[in-house]
Q: What sequence folds into this?
């Protein structure tokens, strides 16, 4: 009987100790309640003690969470509809406020955050054009929205919005065709403008090239004629000098060249007076 009582006491001690001790991990955040009333709004990581059946500890994941919103329609500055699919990264920074605002339910926190993201995207997209939302200022839009959410999220919900990102931006089916046609028209106009500028440049380049070609040909002809004239003058001077040195020999060599050219063709007929001076060197005579 005594042993039975000892075992029962030990068992009771183990149960009480098991319900009195609890551990909070580094990745967790926790609050302590006393009969449902919040008495400790931020329990540090480590080993802690509580009063069994009086205190209740609620533990939450302190790591970054993801809230994946459903796609929503928004109007741009030029009243064009866009379907935007977004998500947000958030984490608990004020565990007490988080518990009070959501009763410790992460799904409630996600719903509250999704509603604020929806309102924020409507305001941010409504202040920008379609081009700015899709490409030009997309990163700035997300940064502005994240900053705007963090101004109130920590105070109201006890969470920090780490980042907000857009996964996809689509045009609704009822406006997609008209937007694509307008984009094609704009691109065609831009292409035509580039072609016109290119044709204008090509005409200018061609005209300049032709003008330069005319100038180069004229200068080349001028130089060629000048060189040819100088050559003819030099040849004439050489002939004159040679003739002055020995006029008889010069006349003889010219006659021989003339005979060679005249009598080279067998089909030609030439009628000349045999006593002509043309044949004087053939007869052994000397020019008078």
A:
């Amino acid at each position: 009987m005594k042993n039975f009582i000892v075992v029962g006491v030990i068992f009771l001690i183990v149960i009480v100790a098991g319900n009195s001790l609890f551990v909070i991990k580094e990745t967790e955040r926790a609050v302590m309640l006393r009969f449902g009333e919040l008495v400790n709004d931020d329990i540090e990581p480590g080993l802690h003690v509580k009063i069994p059946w009086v205190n209740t500890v609620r533990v939450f994941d302190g790591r970054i969470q993801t809230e994946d919103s459903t796609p929503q329609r928004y109007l741009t500055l030029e009243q064009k509809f866009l379907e935007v699919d977004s998500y947000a990264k958030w984490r608990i920074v004020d565990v007490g406020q988080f518990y009070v605002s959501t009763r410790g339910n992460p799904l409630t926190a996600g719903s509250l955050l999704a509603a604020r993201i929806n309102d924020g995207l409507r305001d941010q997209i409504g202040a920008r054009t379609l081009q700015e939302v899709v490409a030009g200022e997309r990163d700035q839009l997300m940064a502005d929205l994240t900053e705007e959410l963090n101004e109130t999220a920590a105070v109201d919900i006890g969470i920090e919005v780490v980042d907000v990102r857009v996964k996809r931006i689509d045009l609704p089916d009822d406006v997609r065709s008209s937007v694509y046609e307008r984009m094609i028209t704009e691109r065609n106009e831009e292409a035509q403008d580039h072609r016109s500028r290119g044709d204008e440049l090509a005409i200018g380049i061609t005209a300049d090239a032709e003008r330069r070609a005319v100038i180069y040909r004229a200068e080349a002809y001028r130089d060629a004629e000048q060189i040819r004239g100088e050559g003819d003058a030099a040849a004439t001077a050489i002939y004159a000098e040679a003739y002055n040195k020995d006029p008889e020999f010069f006349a003889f060599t010219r006659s021989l060249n003339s005979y060679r050219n005249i009598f080279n063709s067998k089909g030609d007929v030439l009628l000349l007076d045999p006593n002509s001076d043309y044949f004087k060197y053939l007869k052994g005579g000397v020019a008078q």
User: Anything to note?
Assistant: The chain has seven helices and nine strands. Helices lie at 2-20, 95-102, 106-126, 130-136, 138-156, 173-245, 247-262. The longest strand covers residues 81-92. The chain has a mean pLDDT of 81.
